[in-house]
Amino acid sequence: MESRYSRQELFSPIGQAGQEFLAEKHVLIVGAGALGSANAEMLARAGVSEISIIDRDYIEMSNLNRQQLYTEEDAYFSLAKAEAAKQRLRNINSEIKVNGIVAEFDSENAESVLEGADLVIDGTDNFSTRFLINDAAAKRKMPWIYGGCVKSHGVCLAILPGETPCLQCLMDVIPQEGETCDSVGIIGPAVQMTAAHQTTEALKILTNQEPSKEMLYFDVWGREYSSMIVSGLLNPDCASCSPQANYPYLRKQKGLRTAVLCGRDTVQVRPDASKPISLKDLAHRLKPVAQKVRENKELIVCYIEGVRFVVFKDGRTLIHGAADVAEARKMYQRFIGA
Ligand SMILES: [Zn+2]
Fold first, then answer.
1. Among 216, 234, 250, where does a domain finish?
2. What was the pLDDT predicted at 254?
3. N vs C: which end of the chain shows fewer Cβ within 10 Å?
């Protein structure tokens, strides 16, 4: 019987030797949204031995146009993305190990989450998380593949600590205009094209070959492609990748933290350090004030005073429809407690 990887082994730049390398490698994917899903599926099918995928969010119907690992049923049950991704990847390839981590990738866990991985794939939708990946990867001298897409555009760059400029070195040349898929939209092909380039560079690195050191931009709708040589932009005084780096994004933050999530009417509130909470106890406690309470293994969804709460078991909470951040914080303290 032919091996499941026979067609990939016939491709001479990989071959059997490359396949053997893949069978020993561990890839961490930060974000299980559109890019994370597409990269994860390709790497699982390619036979990468271990895949870890970390994500803070849950599945909604509006994700389904581009987040290929998920189904209508996952959205109906508001499943946590990392958990649903793990199940789906296991169904795709039962020969590999898959770890789903339901948590925010942050300055407290970044270094430990990278532990044991050979490479990181950027599947995030925001620059603060990308700069954190950049710091953690630079500190551990681990390669990572930056990718981003919005509308019909995409960008991809392999970042190799000590060899290529890092994201911090490239601050001025990376477009960060703040357009997000929630504000200006996105089409599936832009995701697939970006992920195809990310996975390709990942396969080169994982099989001990040279990745491209150019930053690629494209517009799949307008059929425009360009790439930029960035090797001259390595900053010898870079705060993230020079010998005197102080890794600004890895420095710890304290206290109840809030963040407005990517273009939607949502505030995320996090307690100081993650403290697991009992979802059962919380559901019981919220009974007198909450309506439409739904619960699964990873989270509770409910409405309190017309505002939608999604509480994860590490205490992190997404609040949809509060007037502003201050109001969301206040409601968190009143109803969830911290
Ligand atoms: Zn740098």
1. 250
2. 54
3. N
Distance (angstroms) between ligand 1 centre and the Cα of 195 equals: 23
Could you give the CA distance from residue 184 to residue 65 in angstroms, rounded to a whole number?
A: 15
What does the DSSP assignment read for 125-191? SSHHHHHHHHHHHHHHT--EEEEEEEBTEEEEEEE-TTTS--TTTTTTTS------HHHH-B-HHHH
* Phi, psi at 333, each rounded to 5°: -65, -35
Is 1 within the bounds of a domain?
no
Same domain flag for 305 and 185: no
Tell me, in angstroms, the distance from the centre of ligand 1 to residue 159's CA: 10
pTM of the model: 0.85
Q: How far is the CA of 216 from the centre of ligand 1 (A)?
A: 19
Q: What pLDDT score does 175 carry?
A: 66
In a domain, residue 78? The reply is yes
pLDDT score for 241: 95
User: Would you state the pLDDT for residue 265?
Assistant: 78
Give me the pLDDT at residue 277, please: 82
Supply the pLDDT for residue 178: 61
Q: Are residues 196 and 235 in the same domain?
A: yes
pLDDT beneath 50: ranges in the chain: none
Tell me the CA–centroid distance for residue 132 and ligand 1, in Å: 12
- What confidence score (pLDDT) does residue 75 get? 96
Ligand 1: centre distance to CA 136 (Å)? 12
235 C-alpha to center of ligand 1: Å?
Answer: 6
Residue 242 φ/ψ, nearest 5 degrees: -85, 170
Domain span including residue 137:
6-250
